[in-house]
User: What shape does this take?
Amino acid sequence: MLARLKQLPATAWVTFQHATEQALWLLLFVIQAPILGPKAFGLISLVMVFVGFCEFVVASVGTELLLSIRDIQPRHYSTVTVTCVAISTVLGGALFFAADALARIFQDAELPNVARALAFLPILSCLSAAPSAAVKRAMNFRGTALRGISSVSVAGSVSLGLTLSGAGVWALVVQALLQRLVSVVVLWQIATVRPSAQWSWPCLKSLGPMAGKLTVSSVMSWSSGQLPRLILGWWLGIVDLGLFALASRLIDLLTQIAIWPKITVARVYLRTLTDDLPALRAAAEKMFGQLSLLCFPLCAGGALVIPPLFHFWLDPRWYGAIAPSQWLLLTGIPSVTFYCSAAVLLAVNRQGTEALVESTQTLSSAVVAAAVGPFGFLPVTAALALRPWLLVLLPIVCMVRTAHLTWSNIVGPQLRPLLAAAAMGACIWALRLGLEDRLPGAWLIALLIVTGVLVYAALSSLLMPDLLSQLIRRDVRFAR
Assistant: This one.
């Protein structure tokens, strides 16, 4: 059994990691949400906007930079690590000393202590950049899976105990800190590189042009997701921000399970095909098709199951997140194109083009949040959900012009899954309307899910047996 597990393909390990992590998170949230309420999650979400900049931008740029170097040396790992830790220390210190000012802006007395406690997260995240890159370069996704699952399990167990003992928002604070700490320790244990404080200015200088483009792309990617939270926290308050955090967390859950595993592997694998355009096109087409096959039914079916799920699971404090959760979950459909475009553009070293796509998303998110935010929670979330549908042509055009893919490579593989998901959604909607007043919540949810799976499986077998066969057999080269 252990031998068979070790032989699993890379995508299977990444999928297993993300699915397990999200399942653990969901289990925690099921217990914590009714106890802690929206305000605790809104508070932690607000602080993580600032912490996330340090984590996502600095640490992710360091990892992506080390993945992009063709002839890598130990000095690259140490130089990037020292630089990232230095930057994160400055940014974390700025957050620590600005905590009181943030409390005055957002008018919450708990904010300063929470912000100061989480100001140490960026340093922990940057310490994992080098070993994370080394593990991914070695295609050791089994190691990254074990690291992710162990960190979530340990941190979640402690957080759950604190929640049940009445620790309030501090259960979430400890969870975040402990998860990063365990992750760093496990990563350095399995990585092929060793910690080092060696720093080289010539090495850093040589990485400058690429680092600049990756930084712009990462800043824009972070901003597109986090700036709306910051603006909404200012306009609407901590409680509504907690509702928005739940709504956006559901689409994050879907992304982490259905999209991100293949994209993580594809970012590494597609780089090996840059000199073979037909092979690159074929791999990209399979990536679009299989991600659509997985993601589209989850978006359509999940959006229709949300109302009975929320009424069965959560108390009325959370009901305001029902419609926003449905709207944001449907954005997973255009998100397939955005995520795949990032993998393709980075593979062909078009970091500048990827930065353009991310910048457009960021600017549009900020403008929508700022312009529609004063009108209330529901209007602004509806506008934010509409935004990616209006922008989806941008990454398609960029891939056609710079990566030399064709429209049929990008759009063609997504049409049949979209049609099948729409038909499945219509069946679930009709069934829910006819039975929601007649069946208990748990039975209705189970019936809707089973019906959706059976209908979509039948439609997939009829409309796209080739894609379904590839998915079952994992017949995708970048998944191996």
